[in-house]
Amino acid sequence: MTGGKRALLLALPGSEDLADAIAGRLDLSAGRLEWRRFPDGESYVRLHEDPGGRDVLLVARLDHPDDKLATLLFAADLARELGARRIGLVCPYLPYMRQDMRFNPGEAITSRPFARWLSAEFEWLVTVDPHLHRYASLDEIYSLASNVVEAAPALADWIASEVDDPVLIGPDGESEQWVSAVAALRGLPWRVFTKKRHGDRDVSLQLPDLDGLGGHTPVLVDDIISSGTTMAEAARYLTGAGFRSPLAVGVHGLFGEHARETLKSAGLARIVCTNTVDVPEAAIDLTPLLAEAVNGFLTSDL
């Protein structure tokens, strides 16, 4: 760290394990952020360490963000009020990125105000593979400094060590950027389904050319596992084409209502994601990559 006292790391509720792991790798002190709700539902927030003159890192898994955003903003504002030198956010899953245009008249493009709120409270952000579709980079809507950690190396390592003769399959066109990146790291074959969406849970797929790949184990790869509908449909196409039971590997395991049931009913052999979200399927640890990105900010003057 350049100047000032040693950085203070604080975890939002539900992110304590990740904060402790990052603190251990960087030899940082993990402070206590006390949070509870008053009987009327409002938040109570208290810092038990003095942040004065220190860099403060807030670690927050922001799946289900509406339940967590007020606490996050209150904690950042409190640290600044008590004299923090700089405030950074370690947010492995960055929400509100998929609403990046007005699909229907009158809709809110929620990615933009969310970016303004975070940019107003934090000097820098570390996140993992945000869902960039119509934005070229976070800089289009975020005014803070950001470091985007790529999960592809960790996914590639896991697949190479755990799956025999894998062929990587993207369940739709948007997944191609992740599938191709993971495949390139290990020289693996890959294909992508094309998808037509008729509704949130109604999709149809077109099978890619899979000639010559019949002896491989299909691994469905995507950035977000949410409803599971598209992955489940792709799995059924693959087993129907005579392939082994496929695996599903995702970066962010959000698992909406009935998603697990949807995926299991499709015959997937295993469902795996990273620890950007705290779920039982989080078998791929991104802590080393997150700690490296955090250290880059702590040792710079921005």
Automatic annotation (TrEMBL):
It is an enzyme of class 2 (transferase). The keyword Transferase applies. InterPro entries: Pribosyltran_N (IPR029099), PRTase-like (IPR029057), PRTase_dom (IPR000836), Rib-P_diPkinase (IPR005946). CDD domains: PRTases_typeI. Its EC number is 2.7.6.1. Gene3D superfamilies: 3.40.50.2020. It comes from the Bacteria. One of its GO terms (cellular component) is cytoplasm. GO terms for molecular function: ATP binding; kinase activity; magnesium ion binding; ribose phosphate diphosphokinase activity. Keywords: ATP-binding, Kinase, Nucleotide biosynthesis, Nucleotide-binding, Transferase. Coiled coil: none annotated. Residues 9-119 form the Ribose-phosphate pyrophosphokinase N-terminal domain. It catalyses: D-ribose 5-phosphate + ATP = 5-phospho-alpha-D-ribose 1-diphosphate + AMP + H(+). Residues 154-285 form the Phosphoribosyltransferase domain. GO terms for biological process: 5-phosphoribose 1-diphosphate biosynthetic process; purine nucleotide biosynthetic process. Belongs to the ribose-phosphate pyrophosphokinase family. This is ribose-phosphate diphosphokinase. It comes from Wenzhouxiangella sediminis.
